[in-house]
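[audit] Reproducing an earlier prediction to check determinism. Same input, same settings, fresh worker. If the tokens differ from the archived copy the diff job will pick it up downstream; this log only records the rerun itself.
[audit] input (228 residues):
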Amino acid sequence: MVQTKNDQQGHRQRLRERFRLDQGATMPDYELLELALMYAVPRQDVKPIAKDLLRRFGSYSGVLGATTTELESIKGLGTSSIILLHLIAVSQQRAAKQQILDRHVISNWQALFDYCRVSYSELRTEQFHALLLDQQNHLIEDLILGHGSVSDIVIYPREVVKQALDFHAQSLVLVHNHPGGSAKPSRADIQTTSRLKATLKAVDIVLFDHLIVARGGEITSFKEKGIL
């Protein structure tokens, strides 16, 4: 059944009203996406596009983690819509990061986990990061150490130490993602962590933890697992 202009306007107004009532808490993912896309596509039924996005990328977070090239493959999704989705993703990341800026990171572990999930769980390639902390355990910098799989990334412990000292870091948390979906540490993960811990200890910088973030949001803490 083809929707008339009045039908579409009525449907859009109902979606806005439902969102206004509970901030989208009872709306399924496709309706939240549909509501967002309405602001980039003013005169088109965007429900099919929203459903195609979820089928293609598996989840709401998967859609927000998709690249421009991947989004361009979705029929009916134009430049304005792609920019909007990227804007939502970046805004989400910045809001999550703000929750740990100027705060004691170690005592706000849930906020740190939320930041890691938002920032790393939907990345298509592996990234290795160091979250540098000051004497009060406040976040100084989210430092990218490398891209690719841990077995492929060449992590030079002395370079990590140099950058940590440049930022006057007193401790750090290593973070990297596993795009394949498992947060289980590999042998390379454990060996790399061991080398970095020893090198950092020599200059009195504490390696507080190493977090692995899997696609979907599962997180493994080396400290909790007794590996570190």
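[audit] rerun output stored. Observation attached for the diff report: The chain has a mean pLDDT of 84.
[audit] end
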